[in-house]
Amino acid sequence: MSTIQKTVRHKNLTPRQIVAELDKYIIGQDEAKRSVSIALRNRWRRMNADEEIRDEILPNNILLIGPTGVGKTEIARRLAKLADAPFIKVEASKFTEVGYVGRDVESMIRDLTDISVNMVKTEMQERVKEQAKEIVEDRILDILIPPVKQPPAESPGFQADDNDFNPDQASDQELNKRTREKFREKLRNGELEDRKIEVEVRKSSKSPMMQVFGPQGGMEEMGINLQDMLGNLGGQKKTKRNVTIEEARELLLEEEAEKLIDHDAAAQEALERVQKHGIVFIDEIDKVAESSNNGKGGGGPDVSRQGVQRDLLPIVEGSSVSTKHGMVKTDHILFIGSGAFHVSKPSDLIPELQGRFPIRVELNSLTEEDFFDILTKPKNALTKQYQAMMASEGVEVEFTENAIKEVASIAAQVNERVENIGARRLHTILSSLLDELLFAIPDDISSGEITIDREYVNKQLDNLVKDKDLSQYIL
């Protein structure tokens, strides 16, 4: 069984379990969670289906439709973490412009492959960490106590199991060996962590001249390959750094672990992982749809929206993309499209592309009650994040229920009056609410407990909310 299959078996969550995990971070949007949970479980089902039909089972790509800030991106990101799969988020709009600004549509698969390679290498480095630690220990010892070469003739002064060691009769090599063992023990006991040493580490350098190949269609991959080739001319560059032994361990551990892994095997495993479990989240896909209202969707003559869709179509349908690590087949990559579709409609996408996103899920706008739940229930709720930051300074902050309800109410009001940006409004409101407090810590407030109640919220935000022009820019 391959490492990929082991990973899938380990992550074989049922759709109900996947939804339960998503509920920890995302409020509401039950239909969307249900759809993505089925899509994720279907990948496990395909990998365990009969081999004769396995390759014929294609992923059910999903189109998430809803206004900004309702959780579309967060659903896709959490899904990728649950699957432990290579994941990339791209904006469809960056593929719309021509010339040096635009990017080749295939670059999303190249970027996804790079992410997968880094994932696999990190996992492999973790597996060889103990072996790398021993090598790093020897390298640090070589700097502290350089080894003495073995003399031509053996000296009888010292043996490993000899308790009657006589330093007068021992050779330099034997004395050196004994000293090294003493220092090795000190290293393992952490007695030398603050001592400074000079280490030689690899220097990563990228040639600035390669920027000329910037993202322009097929030249993009050519630029990457030339950069790699020219970067390796003359061998790997090294630089000397004066650091503590504690810092040296970290620097050398990464370097030695990388030497121990099989890079070819890592690339092959990464390619397999991309092809079987990769997830591409295409945000703002509605921006490349030509609105039926005006024919061109406001794009102008320099933006070929249909052209981008037709470039995207073979990748979503299933084709082979050339990357610097090898060819990648996109047949079984899961594509999740996302867009507000305010101006255009999903039916404005070209028919072939519409057919490749068979699952359509409409996400609901967030209500005041949703904002309250977002501020209290998720494991990574904003209130919990601010509490953790201020606790690091020794200040305990408590939000009353009425205070959070007031923040939720203000967020709903501002979204209604100015522009509806969903849960993102909570970021700006909490930032303004806690601005004075965050500035005062730790100079004016270095410890103690602070309670944020409704009166405090109204005091800090009342003027901003009442002034429509000001709230438009501040909140």
Description:
With 475 residues, the protein is of the alpha/beta class. It has three domains: 211 residues, P-loop containing nucleotide triphosphate hydrolases (Rossmann fold), CATH 3.40.50; 115 residues, no CATH class; 96 residues, Helicase, Ruva Protein, domain 3. It has 20 helices and eleven strands. The strands form four sheets. The chain has a five-stranded parallel beta sheet, sandwiched between helices. Strand 6 and strand 7 form a beta hairpin. It is flat. The N terminus is likely disordered.
Question: Brief description of this entry?
Answer:
The protein has 475 residues and is of the alpha/beta class. It has helices at residues 3-10, 15-23, 30-47, 51-54, 72-83, 107-127, 129-144, 172-188, 219-231, 245-260, 263-277, 305-317, 351-355, 368-376, 382-391, 401-417, 424-433, 435-440, 454-466, 468-474; strands at 62-65, 87-91, 196-202, 238-244, 279-283, 320-323, 326-329, 334-339, 359-362, 395-399, 448-452. The protein folds into 3 domains: 3-122 and 272-362, P-loop containing nucleotide triphosphate hydrolases (Rossmann fold); 129-152 and 170-260, no CATH class; 368-463, Orthogonal Bundle (Helicase, Ruva Protein, domain 3).
Q: What attributes characterize this protein structure?
A:
475 residues; alpha/beta; Rossmann fold; Helicase, Ruva Protein, domain 3; two-stranded antiparallel sheet; 20 helices; 50% helix
Helix-strand layout with pairing:
Blueprint: H1 3-10, H2 15-23, H3 30-47, H4 51-54, E1 62-65, H5 72-83, E2 87-91, H6 107-127, H7 129-144, H8 172-188, E3 196-202, H9 219-231, E4 238-244, H10 245-260, H11 263-277, E5 279-283, H12 305-317, E6 320-323, E7 326-329, E8 334-339, H13 351-355, E9 359-362, H14 368-376, H15 382-391, E10 395-399, H16 401-417, H17 424-433, H18 435-440, E11 448-452, H19 454-466, H20 468-474
Parallel strand pairs: 1-8, 1-9, 2-5, 5-8, 10-11
Antiparallel strand pairs: 3-4, 6-7
Helix pairs in contact: 2-3, 3-5, 6-10, 6-11, 7-8, 7-10, 14-16, 16-17, 16-19
